[in-house]
Design brief:
Helices cover 18% and strands 27% of the residues. It has 174 residues and is α+β, with helices and mostly antiparallel strands.
């Protein structure tokens, strides 16, 4: 009998808690907005975005030429820090490179020590709607010793302010 009364007490507490949530939802006017049309939905656009691309056909033992493009998506001048980007020529590990089986590839480039915050000359300005690019050789900084499919992901948005949402998948042949 004690078990039944305990179960009834717990159920009534849960039921009243659910009821109070629904009444609070009605009082605040909250409603389901999952079917809001695209025109009404606010889309957040990152002010400075980047994109990685491969130039040519990469071969094992040869250069793996890459391009890092940066775009200003605003209607005003924007800036980004060149630290941890190809704009400073391999001074840090700003890319994660891995084989298709998720085996990480070792970074063999330089690692610069930094003072914080970055000085003014560490920033590059981009006019409204403008873009800029830097080319680099991935093989100069990463020990790529096997042919195969690789995934390359930019990992330094918190330092540079450049948001790169997509990883790049490339094939490096013999």
């Amino acid at each position: 009998m004690k078990k039944i009364s305990l179960i009834i007490a717990v159920c009534s507490i849960l039921f009243s808690a659910c009821n109070s949530f629904k009444s609070k939802e009605k009082a605040t006017g909250a409603q389901d907005t999952t079917l809001v049309s695209e025109g009404k939905a606010e889309k957040k656009i990152d002010p400075v975005t980047g994109k990685l691309s491969v130039i040519g056909e990469p071969k094992l033992g040869g250069p793996i030429n890459m391009r890092f493009s940066v775009y200003n998506n605003t209607d005003t001048v924007a800036k980004f820090c060149i630290w941890h980007t190809p704009f400073e020529k391999l001074m840090s590990k700003y890319l994660d490179v891995a084989l298709e089986d998720y085996t990480p590839i070792d970074y063999k480039g330089a690692m610069a020590k930094r003072i914080m915050p970055p000085p003014a000359d560490s920033y590059k300005k981009l006019n409204a709607g403008d873009s800029t690019s830097a080319d680099f050789n991935l093989a100069d900084a990463y020990a790529i010793t096997k042919a195969g499919n690789y995934t390359i992901k930019y990992n330094s948005a918190t330092v540079s302010g450049i948001v790169v949402t997509d990883s790049l998948k490339i094939y490096i042949g013999n």
